[in-house]
Design a protein that fits this description.
- By secondary structure, the protein is mainly α.
- It has a domain of 78 residues.
- 57% of the residues lie in helices and 2% in strands.
- Helix 7 crosses helix 18, helix 18 crosses helix 19 and helix 18 packs across helix 21.
- It is globular, with a radius of gyration of 23 Å.
- The chain starts with a helix and ends in a 9-residue tail after the last helix.
- The relative contact order is 0.13.
- This is Deoxyguanosinetriphosphate triphosphohydrolase.
- Keywords: Hydrolase.
- It comes from Sphingobacterium corticis.
Length: 448
């Protein structure tokens, strides 16, 4: 793979349009970022759970604030990589003109990396999958292909993000978000179908990155950008190199910032947070600064900032040093796992504490259980009603609640199921709970 081909400003749906010669305040990749910022799917992330329940008496991160912070870290990672590369090759701007845009590309991809995640965090994904593996959705198994069934039984937010950005939803622009090919490729962590994914030990097929319906979409993107076909999977590809930077930005943010939220919620003490973050800070002058602060929250913020700074610098260095391996597809690790061993060990320690103390905290587990109940109930109402050939009056009322944009334009069962999943997975936590209560008769809608 070569940077000159990997970095393309060609837009999805506008492949034949030439770039304007007029002077503009924004590059093509900055346009991608702005389109995402002003979009409805992005705004809805403010009411989608990151880890802790929303809303609460203490501010914690939601999917929107998380995505903004990941985008900020991603921009720094990309910019540092470009700066390091330019020091090694002063002629790089002539050889690869768009390399200077890597920071903007990565930040746009980071902004959209969680766009397809349903309500209630990762438990929302599991709830949708379980409806087909253990619930009433099992009845549809014989009505779809084996490849399509793998999609349904392994709902994946990352694959859903690509669908949201490119799918011609009914009544909407048939070009989707019309993002650049490179920004689209940079969000797909595991560029393969569900049936080819979930391969233990494979960095390119650990999960999957596009639904069966979006395979032609990604094939087109991969061909344009010169992505290498996976030698172990002829129907998949090796990830776009910039995926490593998007992945690193996400890893840095959730590992570090979840600790900050846990402290605000008094799940972890200041001493515990300091013990976890201080070894990452790499600053001999930090102790006097910490001792000089009386506000504990300010101490945690300083530790968080310093830890993130260390990880950004080291991940950028690894990405630059391992550039040849990454471009050839032989690099088989995340950037975080390729850092110096003391940093890797400390990140593993943070991960262990997070799993034990944060992700299994009572209020986190409670919202996961609630998410299962709500998502399964919504699918149980909308899917059967939408799929029935001969609908009852009740079914017609249920289907009438699905917005026109989510109605399938094809009559096959998979397309219809996918349409209902588009509707349900796009709901915020608040909307999903409110709709669940209304259709279950727990609350009666007001006539106001």
């Amino acid at each position: 793979m070569e940077w000159k081909q990997l970095l393309s400003a060609k837009r999805w749906g506008y492949e034949t349009r030439k770039l304007s010669d007029q002077i503009d305040a924004r590059s093509e990749f900055q346009r991608d970022y702005d389109r995402l910022i002003f979009s409805s799917p992005f705004r809805r992330l403010q009411n989608k759970t990151q880890v802790f329940p929303l809303p609460g008496p203490v501010f914690v991160h939601n999917r929107l604030t998380h995505s903004l912070e990941v985008a900020s870290v991603g921009r720094s990672l990309g910019r540092l990589f470009y700066t390091m590369t330019k020091k090694q090759n002063s002629n790089i701007d002539v050889e690869v003109p768009f390399l200077q845009e890597v920071g903007n590309i990565v930040s746009a991809a980071c902004l959209s990396h969680d766009l397809g995640n349903p309500a209630f965090g990762h438990s929302g994904e599991a709830a949708i999958s379980s409806y087909f593996t253990q619930g009433a959705g099992l009845a549809y198994r014989e009505l779809v292909t084996k490849e399509q069934w793998e999609d349904l039984t392994h709902f994946e937010g990352n694959a859903n993000a690509l669908r949201i950005l490119t799918h011609p939803f009914n009544g909407k622009d048939d070009k989707g978000f019309a993002l650049t090919y490179t920004s689209l490729a940079a969000i797909v962590k595991y560029p393969c179908r569900a049936i080819d994914g979930h391969v233990k030990g494979s960095h390119h097929r650990k999960k999957y990155g596009f639904f069966e319906g979006e395979k032609p979409v990604f094939d087109k993107i991969a061909t344009e950008l010169g992505l290498q076909v996976d030698p172990e999977n002829a129907d998949g590809y090796l990830r776009h190199p910039l995926v490593y930077l998007v992945e690193a930005a996400d890893d840095i943010c959730y590992n570090i910032i979840d600790l900050e939220d846990a402290h605000h919620l008094r799940i972890l003490s200041y001493e515990e947070v300091e013990d976890l973050l201080l070894p990452l800070c790499m600053d001999d002058q930090l102790r006097p600064r910490l001792d000089g602060l009386k506000d504990v929250g300010s101490k945690v913020s300083l530790l968080r900032a310093k830890a993130i700074n260390t990880l950004i610098n080291d991940c950028s260095r690894v990405f630059t040093e391992k550039q040849a391996e990454i471009l050839s597809g032989t690099f088989q690790s995340s950037l975080i796992d390729a850092l110096d061993q003391p940093l890797v060990d400390q990140m593993k320690k943070i991960e262990k504490v997070s799993i034990k103390r944060i992700y299994n905290a009572p209020n986190v587990v409670q919202i996961e259980i609630a998410g299962f109940k709500v998502m399964n109930a919504l699918l149980g109402e909308f899917l059967p009603a939408y799929l029935k050939e001969e609908k009852t009056k009740f079914d017609e009322k249920v289907v009438a609640m699905i917005p026109e944009q989510f109605h399938a334009t094809s009559d096959d069962v998979y397309s219809k199921i996918r349409s209902v999943l588009d509707f349900v997975s796009g709901m915020t936590d608040v909307y999903a709970v409110d709709l669940y209560r209304r259709i279950q008769g727990i609350t009666i809608p007001s006539l106001d």
